[in-house]
Amino acid sequence: MALFRGFLREPSDPEGFYELLARDAANQVERYEPLAGRVVVDVGGGGGHFTEEFRRRGAQGYLFEPDPCELTGSRRPPEGAVVADGYLLPLADGTADVCFCSNVLEHVEDPRTFLGELVRVTRPGGLIYVSFTNWYSPWGGHEWAPWHYLGAERARRRYERRTGRPAKHVLGENLFRVHVGATLRQVRARDDVAVVSARARYWPFLPDLVTRVPLLREFATWNLLLILRRCP
Q1: pLDDT tens digits for 132-177?
Q2: Of 13, 78, 161, 203, which has the fewest Cβ atoms less than 10 A away?
Q3: Are 70 and 47 in contact (CB under 8 A)?
Q4: What is the pLDDT at residue 2?
Q5: Which residues form the Methyltransferase type domain (predicted)?
Q6: How many C-alpha atoms does 163 have within 13 Å on its Cβ side?
Q7: DSSP result, 153-174
Q8: What percentage of the chain exceeds 70 in pLDDT?
């Protein structure tokens, strides 16, 4: 409920919302891997709220963001942040103890290649945290949700008429249809990772159950959280 209330306040208090989200994400990571002393790679972390929270907890946090506008938007990015393409990170194999990626997968055209790069930069036995908003979620259309259920182009035009400004996201350019079932099949078919957990990111109860029910999971998950371990 705290996250949902924070989300409703996001337009007026984005700093407060993203700081709350970062604390919650760090708590989730620490259920599986302590952050203190770990090398944490934050891929697509925008202005750096997650990286800063990891550093507050004693991690060596590094931010890699492909969009310079996101990196240098309304706040000063963390020291050492790098503009980098998530398909080809400037890191050696096995660099990270934890590879963290929140709400990025729906913005990449080739999720399979992108996930492979997250795995590559994670050490054997290391943790990979991936969450994303699935297309049939009520929030799947992002700023023009939930009207995406009636068609992406119609929803985008409606948003622009109502707000008088261009939509940030355009389907097929910087927003893509990513689905829960297809993503689960994809990661389970890999031989270089083990799925530790696959659950609804924001559900306060039975978060693992909803992701097991075909069709229902596409609408009810809202945001899929994958916890993966890099295989030795």
Answers
A1: 999 999 999 999 999 999 999 999 999 999 999 999 999 999 999 9
A2: 161
A3: yes
A4: 78
A5: 41-130
A6: 12
A7: HHHHHHHHHHHSS--S--BTTT
A8: 98
